[in-house]
Amino acid sequence: MSKLSLDRILQSQGFGSRKYCRSLIEDGEVAVNGEIVTDYKLIPDTAGLVLHLFDEDWEYREHLYIALNKPANFECSRKPSHHPGVLTILPEQFSWRDVQPVGRLDHDTTGLLLMSDDGAFIHAQSSPKRHVPKVYAATTHDAVTDELIAQLLGGVQLHDEPAPLAASTCRKLDTHLLEIVLEQGKYHQVKRMLAAAGNHCSALRRVAIGGLQLASLELEEGEWCYLDAGQLALLAPQTE
Ligand code: URA
Fold it and tell me: Which CATH number fits domain 6-59: 3.30.2420.10, 3.20.20.60, 3.40.1640.10, 3.10.290.10?
């Protein structure tokens, strides 16, 4: 159990400065487990704690682990330049908690994007030492051929890479649709690998990370959900 007072708890959840959070509490704007509390010094039990403010219930969460079904035309960059940032899809207070995308998807790539405010989690998930497979469905300009699959499995040389990069697995899903699984996360990797193999990626969607399947989350594009411990366990590395 945390020993945080209510004003600090609100601040930790991203609702604003301590001073602002105190004023919300003193103005009777905050309910704790269903009861309005005006004493900001109260130390509530954080286990199962539900705050109510701004007409919504907010379950206390020490850290946020989020899966977003990313739509096209959103940037993962912290300082987006041409399109809105993915953070704008989440509640505003999550930005105050320093929630960040775990890795990047291109602005036109859709699908599974993890987001968190847990630095250790972000670091571990992004580490190249982890061999967590990322599964993509790539729509191709030219038809998928056995030769293309053989090239991607055998490894293709990208300009700025010291050695060829290979897909872990790769299979044809349809005449112009390829499932490609990568264990690295290089810049524009799928698109560049397809180009290096003589084809062109016209649309890209990430459908799974490790054992976590986007389909199992039942999110429409633009929707997000919290990940529970069981879903996070599916992201565990296969080898360290
Ligand atoms: N590979 C790409 O080319 N783009 C992405 O967004 C992800 C992987």
Answer: 3.10.290.10
